[in-house]
Amino acid sequence: MTSKVVEFVPGLRYADETEFNDLVLRFAHQFEKVEGGTKITHRLTISGDGSDQVGPEIGPQISADFPDQMDALIAEARNA
């Protein structure tokens, strides 16, 4: 699968999309400065034919590892 960046605002947000069969998976990431650091918000939107039926099933499967992925990303950024 190939993802493409569809939105990029440095320091604020970015989004990428991946096509999967007849679905489009949009991963959006928002960064907000807060006291003591940065709050990162992630959103997964699933669209396309059958997304109403398939989305509730695959959405949790896809996003289940988001916390672990973000922890690893943050740890790597701190070590850079």
Written account of the structure:
- The chain is α+β, with helices and mostly antiparallel strands and 80 residues long.
- The protein has one domain.
- It is built from two helices and four strands.
- The protein has a four-stranded antiparallel sheet.
- The chain is elongated, with a radius of gyration of 14 Å.
- The relative contact order is 0.14.
Total strands: the figure is: 4
Mean pLDDT: 90
Element order: H for helix, E for strand: EEEEHH
Structural class by sheet pairing and helices: alpha+beta
Helix percent reads: 25-40%
Distance between the termini: 28 Å
Q: What's the Cα radius of gyration?
A: 14 Å
What does the overall shape look like?
Answer: elongated
- Quick one: biggest sheet? 4 strands, antiparallel
Number of distinct helices: 2
Major β-sheet strand ordering: 1-2-3-4
Tally of distinct domains: 1
Assembly classification: single chain
Percentage of residues in DSSP E strands: over 45%
The stretches of 5 or more residues where confidence is low (pLDDT under 50) are none
Provide a short characterization of the protein structure.
The protein has one domain. Helix content is 34%, strand content 49%. The chain is built from two helices and four strands, in the order ββββαα.
Features of the shown structure:
80 residues; alpha+beta; four-stranded antiparallel β-sheet; 2 helices; elongated
Fold topology:
Elements: E1 3-9, E2 13-20, E3 23-34, E4 37-48, H1 51-63, H2 66-79
Antiparallel strand pairs: 1-2, 2-3, 3-4
